[in-house]
Design goal:
The protein is an alpha/beta fold and about 280 residues long. The chain is built from eleven helices and eight strands. It has one domain (about 5-130, about 200-279): Rossmann fold (3-Layer(aba) Sandwich), CATH 3.40.50. It is globular.
């Protein structure tokens, strides 16, 4: 597996799939990048380059654990670009990885050819996804057999009385998928972050500077696509539409019947949307 050196000397691994123009894909979590799979077959159209974020997958655990912070991970993406010898990169981020991607775009706008944000987290830009917005997204699933206990768990979390990621957080997992079937259950079980320190330190003090990031994005000139699932409780369409307005011109797409992992729910539609956008 290929590796490169981060600015602080940490050895980081990355995966390469397919051929064609490069597309750097930043996973969320921070979690093992395996959960992205082949992004629904996207590698049949682009050469996808998927880094294992520091402390996850086959990348080394850093000596300085404060380097798990989101803004420090931006430096790793720049080191990867330099290692690949690319003057510019098309950049895709998913979930928490979109925070890294937009911070990179804000700091290195001239080095981004196109920006794709899938199920975007809003932390880097300071937006708020309200409990009511999440509740409205959840109620779209009210006819699902798993809905009653999952919705009760969601209400407990929104009220601040939930049991956290190991309790009610697990109970709401069905809301993240367009279909809560055997494949979704396997994906959820295999894709949970296993480096708790990396997750805890990702958003530590100093990780985000929403005012500066939003100011930079307001003049960002590269094409931007924001795609979220119709049922995505983590990145509801209403919040993602608000996010899209931060850019001078951005394409905003809601994938019907999809949750937080739209390449699993309808791979053909997902791949067509992304490849059509990137050209």
């Amino acid at each position: 597996m290929p590796t490169f050196s981060a600015p602080d000397g940490t050895r980081l691994a990355y995966h390469v799939h397919g051929d064609g123009p490069a597309l750097v894909c930043v996973p969320g979590g921070p979690a093992d990048s395996r959960y992205l799979g082949d992004l629904g077959g996207l590698a049949a159209h682009r050469r996808t380059i998927v880094p294992d974020l520091r402390g996850t997958g086959r990348s080394a655990i850093p000596a300085d654990v404060s380097s798990y912070r989101c803004d420090r991970l931006v430096d790793d993406i720049e080191a990867l670009r330099d290692h690949l010898g690319l003057a510019r990169i098309d950049l895709l981020g998913h979930s928490a990885g979109t925070n890294i991607a937009v911070r990179y775009a804000a700091e290195y706008p001239e080095r981004v050819g196109g920006l794709v944000l899938i199920g975007p987290s809003v932390r880097a830009v300071g937006l708020t996804v309200t409990g009511q917005t999440r509740r409205e997204a959840a109620l779209l699933r009210k006819d699902e057999p798993w809905f009653p206990p999952a919705f009760a768990a969601l209400e407990a979390l929104l009220a601040g009385t939930g049991a956290g990621a190991g309790g009610d957080g697990e109970a709401i997992a069905p809301f993240l998928y367009g279909r809560w079937d055997a494949a979704a259950r396997r994906h959820h079980a295999d894709g949970r972050p296993d480096n708790e320190e990396a997750v805890a330190r990702f958003g530590a003090d100093g990780a985000f500077d929403p005012e500066a990031t939003c100011a930079a994005l307001a003049s960002f000139g590269a094409p931007v696509l924001l795609l979220t699932g119709e049922f995505d409780l983590n990145s509801p369409p209403r919040s993602t539409a608000e996010y899209a307005e931060l850019f001078p011109a951005a394409s905003f797409v809601v994938q019907p019947g999809a949750g937080h992992f739209p390449w699993l729910d309808d791979a053909d539609r997902f791949v067509a949307t992304v490849t059509d956008f990137l050209g």
